[in-house]
Amino acid sequence: MHRVLVSACLLGERVRHNGEHKQSHDSVLHRWLREGRVVPFCPEVAGGLPVPRPAAEIAEAAGGLSVLLGTGRVLDLNARDVSAFFVAGAQQALECARLESIRVAILKEGSPSCGTTFVYDGTFTSRQVPGQGVTAALLRQTGIQVLNEFQFEEADRLLTQLPQERRS
Ligand code: SF4
Fold this sequence. Notes:
Elements: E1 4-7, H1 27-35, E2 38-41, H2 43-46, E3 56-58, H3 64-69, E4 74-76, H4 83-99, E5 104-107, E6 118-120, E7 128-130, H5 134-141, E8 145-148, H6 152-161
Parallel strand pairs: 1-2, 1-5, 5-8
Antiparallel strand pairs: 3-4, 6-7
Helix pairs in contact: 4-5
């Protein structure tokens, strides 16, 4: 059975910067939980950041890939460069994905780690720009299908199209 990496905050874990969660009540997610295929993961906590923590955004709307390449930075509300935590978290997410043979992930939209189609522009003024978070960018580079919390049905379809896992 294929497992799915899911942002921990979507599962009710209070790991967001403000100490809150973003629990999803999607019926597909509930079924996946019953099937035991959900792998919860929070890249920012795994990368060493505490809860709560200052909000952070990718500076100058540069996108997650630029942070991985070292040309972009993630800054928090106090202008502290927290890029290293975000990159470490992304690498740990990838390691977890490898261990669990993950082919599909559902990440929280808009986050500087987990955003899949948009992130915030780095001005802390709620302005969105097209782009992806640092973890989403790294997972996609390895061919993992990264979707968001509005795409559970699509992710479920992708799972059914994957070849069956071989068990030795
Ligand atoms: Fe949720 Fe991802 Fe932010 Fe962690 S890093 S709180 S999993 S959106």
